[in-house]
Design goal:
Forms a ternary complex with CDKN1A/p21 and HSP90AB1/Hsp90. Keywords: Phosphoprotein, Repeat, TPR repeat. The chain is built from ten helices and six strands, in the order ααββββαββααααααα. Strands 1-2-5-6-3-4 form a six-stranded antiparallel beta sheet. Helix 8 runs parallel beside helix 10. The longest helix has 29 residues. The chain starts with 17 loop residues before the first helix and ends with a helix.
Length: 349
């Protein structure tokens, strides 16, 4: 074994006896040998949670909520596993899945088998526990068919369907939901039958399914269930968006109907975007112009709101809804101007 190099800093004590120097050298070498022979603690793996969410998450961003959920998952992991020496397997970044719309974060508890996942038409045998909503899925094991059935219209239905689309057979996972402080929801996928991706469907099949979703959405909207109707319209649009451009004209109606739901749900920004899709294809679409005007007024964009509502009245001068809304916008604009004038007087008075 080579002796360690002598440090070049400081002056060497040449008056030290040779015997003492050899004794110190032997002690140092013994210490090094003992250190090398000591058992080492297993290295602690760093939990990598900084996974970039799917780009689709930009559609409905929920960044703060997702970061909070990830922090909670990290804390739960440390609490449940205890010390590093007792941890059977460290949680990997791949064990976390971020739902693109930010509605939940999934943590895999038991990994599934294979690579296949449920698709449209797959009959899934599942068990769901711990849902915070008033009425969750049936207790115990139940069978749910992807893309089919009234269960998808429930508050928990869309959440389960989105999660199942990311699961493999035999997988068990915990879901952390924004604003839910209780224990995480647990979902287990025991088995599922073979289904089909939307791109595997014929054009006629997609259009037929979209018509069914639209009809069901209209029923829910008339019954006062704007949230359920929005889900139906959204699913219909996802089917039709896979068709080559320009796509069927029904897309225009679906976007207009979705905008009406979004206004009722207090989502004016999304409503304005849905109306934009309609007006790209039909610039004179009265309902889209009116709903975009209402959305812009809710967002405080009074000039844009006025422009849209005046377009409606130019086409249909007797449109009472547009007249009333334009009157509200005018009053809101006067209040805004008065407040601005008062602020300027205080600043320069």
């Amino acid at each position: 074994m080579e002796t360690p190099p002598v440090s070049t800093t400081g002056e060497k004590d040449i008056s030290q006896p040779q015997q003492q120097w050899e004794k110190n050298l032997r002690e140092n070498l013994d210490s090094v040998t003992q250190i090398r022979q000591q058992p080492r603690d297993p290295p602690t793996e760093t939990l990598e949670l900084g996974v970039n969410p799917d780009p689709a998450s930009q559609i409905l961003e929920n960044t703060q909520g997702t970061e909070k959920l990830v922090a909670e998952l990290e804390g739960d992991s440390h609490k449940s596993h205890g010390s590093t020496s007792q941890m059977p397997e460290a949680l990997q970044a791949s064990d976390l899945w971020y739902c693109p719309d930010g509605s939940f974060v999934k943590k895999i508890i038991i990994r599934g088998h294979g690579l296949d996942k449920p698709k449209l038409g797959s009959c899934c045998r599942v068990q769901a526990l711990g849902f915070p909503f008033g009425s969750g899925p049936p207790e115990g094991w139940t069978e749910l068919t992807m893309g089919v059935g009234p269960w998808r219209e429930e508050t928990w239905g869309e959440l389960i369907e989105k999660c199942l689309e990311s699961m493999c057979q035999g997988e068990e996972a915990e879901l952390q939901l924004p604003g839910h402080s209780g224990p995480p929801v647990r979902l287990t996928l025991a088995s599922f039958t073979q289904g089909r991706d939307s791109w595997e469907l014929e054009t006629s099949e997609k259009e037929a399914l979209a018509r069914e979703e639209r009809a069901r959405g209209t029923e829910l909207f008339r019954a006062g269930n704007a949230e359920g109707a929005a889900r139906c319209y959204g699913r219909a649009l996802r089917l039709l968006l896979t068709l080559p451009p320009p796509g069927p004209p029904e897309r225009t109606v679906l976007h207009a109907n979705l905008a009406a739901c979004q206004l009722l749900l207090g989502q004016p920004q999304l409503a304005a975007q849905s109306c934009d899709r309609v007006l790209e294809r039909e610039p004179g679409h009265l309902k889209a112009l009116y709903r975009r005007g209402v959305a812009q007024a809710a967002l405080g964009n009074l000039e844009k709101a006025t422009a849209d509502l005046k377009k409606v009245l130019a086409i249909d001068p007797k449109n009472r809804a547009a007249q009333e809304e334009l009157g509200k916008v005018v009053i809101q604009g006067k209040k805004q101007d008065a407040g601005l004038a008062q602020g300027l007087r205080k600043m320069f008075g």
